[in-house]
Amino acid sequence: MGTYFNPDNESFRQAVRSKIYVDKTGLLEELNQMIGTEGKCVAISHARRFGKSQAAGMIDAYYSMGSESKELFSPFEIAGEADFEEHLNKYNVIHLDISSFTDFHKEDLIMEIKKRLYGDFEEEGYDGIDGTTDFNVVINNVYKKSGKPFVIIIDEWDCVVRNHADRPDLVHEYLQFLHSLFKSEESKHYLALGYITGILPIKKIKDESALNNFDEYTMLASEPLTRYFGFTEDEVKTLCGRYGMDYDSVKEWYNGYLIDGIHMYNPNSVYRAMSRKKLDSYWKNTSAFDTINTFITMNYEGLKDDIMEMLSGGKVYVNVNTFRNDFTTINSKDEALTALIHLGYLGYDAESCETYIPNFEVSLAYQAALATGEWKEIAESISRCQELLNMTIRGNEERVAKLIELAHETYTSVLKYNDENSLSCVLTMAYFTAPAYYNIIRECPAGKGYADFVFIPRKNAGMRPAMVVELKCDESVDTAISQIKTKGYAGVLKDYEEEILLVGISYNRETKKHVCKIEKSTDVLHL
């Protein structure tokens, strides 16, 4: 076995030894159906930390002749398939992580890749390799001698195209190399399966056709492979039960990616939350800050309004078809939003063609990214959110009114709020950090009407009370409190026996002033 040629199964073995492993071996059966067909070239472009590289290690373990993996796979889904042993460890495998080469070998990238593969070939007994021969011819010779076709895995294939757009000579040489692997005349014979992973869909480069034979599976659409990248709802529910985590809280933090109608969770974040038994923003150690900031500060008309609409819980229309799969040629709001979708910083509803911020974890990444430039005022307002929540719970009516007034002034300059519905959006932003502790329901169905907000404490919320918030424009705050009582908001709080805060907020459009009244109650909702 070699490092790059016919690798062993150690990567997959470490994955299944881990404290948490979710069986994704069903992907192998999908790939088995593609082997030797016109659909044998597969391009997976998903956000970072969505399981692409782990899947590549699993593919190594299953197909590579350098492994003996029957026992390793026996507990998992693939072992129950009729063709399990037909493909098990029966192929020559090449596995390259391109990012590990570009870090040190930008100037001689292709030469270094060939050098290391030639070394592995010779170590496996394929002597007499002529380094001047075209690489695809060398592979074909190995195929003829071994009688075994190739599965070729290229992880982070797009890092050259993404990171070195200023070096068209390097990009061209690299794409020609990929063409020799996947589209040469020889590859028609030796290639059983091509599997490449990246962040962005394949960029169409003028006069280059290296990868136009690949079927693409993206953050926009990836059937039938969708459930193998990310965690499904059922998988997360099972993990929550096993590790004693509150499912509703985990859902608020990490759910939100709707791909082919399937709700998907960020697997890396769920894994860390379960392992540490703590809900947190596990993307904070990635490049989220710089990446988000790059796109949301482009100042295309309407972009800032759309970001604020999504931060306040809304969705916005986006045309994803104009994006050219390239970070360096973003020329419109739609292209900026689509780039964020592919990076995992926005979700996408294909049915309505709308984009949105998928979960609380990602919203915190935006909070960090906003703290610069023209967004600084908004970031400062968001930074007061925890104080607002604390002051509401403590019943400090004057401070609550002041903080909401500051929030309203900030967001009015962006979204021109001046009615009750818009004030609801302002309050969503004002209570930005509340989803960490509460399940927040807007216009919650009530006994005789609708509450504007109901805050239901999560299991990890400590001693925080439930809250019902009624909003009024140009009416007294007493009217808001009275409406809570007269409507008798039963709804989802009808069996809630702990303390409930009744929060009335009024906004005077003429004076621009806010007034708040807070009452404590344990029985008013049960009338």
Number of helices, counting only DSSP H or I runs of 4 residues or more: 23
- Say how many strands there are: 16
Q: Taking all residues together, what is the mean pLDDT? A: 86
**Content of β-strand:** 15-25%
Give the CATH class of the largest domain.
Alpha Beta
Low-confidence runs:
none
Percent helix among the residues?
A: 40-55%
Termini gap: 74 Å
**How would you sum up the major sheet?**
5 strands, parallel
What report would you give on this structure?
Helix 23 (477-487) links the parallel strand 14 (466-473) and strand 15. Helix 15 crosses helix 18 (360-369). Helices cover 41% and strands 16% of the residues. The chain has a five-stranded parallel sheet. A five-stranded mixed sheet has the order 12-13-14-15-16, with helices on both faces. A three-stranded antiparallel sheet has the order 6-8-7. It folds into four domains: 10-225, Rossmann fold (3-Layer(aba) Sandwich), CATH 3.40.50; 230-276, no CATH class; 288-369, no CATH class; 377-526, 3-Layer(aba) Sandwich (Trna Endonuclease, Chain: A, domain 1), CATH 3.40.1350. The protein contains 23 helices and 16 strands.
Quick rundown:
Helix content is 41%, strand content 16%.
What's the helix and strand layout?
Layout: H1 10-17, H2 26-32, E1 41-45, H3 52-63, H4 70-73, H5 84-87, E2 92-97, H6 98-102, H7 109-123, H8 135-146, E3 150-155, H9 159-163, H10 168-182, H11 187-190, E4 191-198, E5 215-218, E6 231-232, H12 233-243, H13 247-254, E7 257-259, E8 262-265, H14 267-276, H15 288-296, H16 303-311, E9 316-317, H17 333-342, E10 347-349, E11 354-356, H18 360-369, H19 376-383, H20 385-394, H21 397-415, H22 420-430, E12 438-445, E13 450-457, E14 466-473, H23 477-487, E15 500-507, E16 514-521
Parallel strand pairs: 1-4, 1-5, 2-3, 3-4, 14-15
Antiparallel strand pairs: 6-8, 7-8, 9-11, 10-11, 12-13, 13-14, 15-16
Helix pairs in contact: 1-3, 15-17, 15-18, 19-21, 20-21, 21-22
